Each structure stands twice: as C-alpha cells, then as structure tokens.
Amino acid sequence: MSKVAIRQPRYAQIFADDPEMCAVATEKWREVVEHLKANDWVTAGRLSVADRYARAYAEYEKHYPQAVAEGPVKVGPNGGDLFNFLWSVVEKLNERLAKLEAKLKIDPDGEATVTTARGPKTKADDYLED
Fold first, then answer.
1. 54, 11 contact by CB (below 8 A)
2. Is 96 a domain residue?
3. How far is Cα 63 from Cα 78, in angstroms, rounded to an integer?
C-alpha cells in the first residue's frame, strides 16, 4: 500500500464538551490504526472510516448505559407509554458500528476477519470452492 500520513483527528476539539467521549474516541482510533498497520491496510479511505468508527463508538459508549437503564418504552407525563428515542439511537449506532467494522475488516473483538473476493466468508463457500 502507498504511504499515507496518519493523522489523528482533533477529538479534543470535536468533543470539547465531553472529555470522556474524547478519551474513548482517541483510544478506539489508536486501536483501529494499529489494526490497519498490522495488516498493511492503511489507506486514506480506511483512515476516514476509522475516524467515523471512533466517533460513533464514543457516542455509543456514552448513550448505551442510559438507554439500557430506561428501556425501549418510557412512562409519559400523562402516565402513558412513550417510545424511548435514545433506545432507537443506540440501536442505529450499533448497526452503524457493525457496518464500519465490516469495512475495516475487524470483528467486535478486534481480530481480522476472513474475506473472499465476494465479501465475508460464509459456510456455503466451503462447498462452492470445489
């Protein structure tokens, strides 16, 4: 791969109001960049995806505990049931993280995944390779 300058985004400015999110995003960025370096996958595009992944991961880590504590349905001001939009945000972030992990070729544990020319390896590939 060609040499690409690896510059960490300015998470201190991006998350100026929340130092915890800054720390989480910085740590996740470093983990992903190390993963990319170890596999010689560093490209400008993957670094951009790594940035989006770090930001989404920091947001997920911030909102997940509150969403789980409140649950998918909240009690409204008049005693009725209301949908918890924070729950929906966490679900959407979880889906986005999975897609970004696939682009970065990592699983949630940080290990490289096996891929084929068509994408991730499936059980059917064992039979189709013959």
1. yes
2. yes
3. 25
Question: Which amino acid makes up residue 2?
Answer: S
| Band of residue 87 on the pLDDT scale cut at 50, 70, 90 | very high
Number of domains observed in the structure of the chain: 1
Would 70 be classed as within a structural domain?
Answer: yes
Q: In whole angstroms, what is the distance from residue 46 CA to residue 38 CA?
A: 14
In a domain, 2, yes or no: no
Which residue range is the domain that position 95 belongs to? 11-125
How far does CA 30 lie from the centroid of its chain?
Answer: 13
Type of residue found at 33: V
Question: Could you report the per-residue pLDDT of 101-122, keeping only the tens digit for each?
Answer: 999 988 665 454 544 455 666 7
For 103, counting Cβ atoms within 10 Å of its Cβ (0-12 exposed, 13-18 middle, 19+ buried), the class is middle
- Give the three-state DSSP class for 71: coil
Q: What's the pTM value of the predicted model, to 2 decimals? A: 0.77
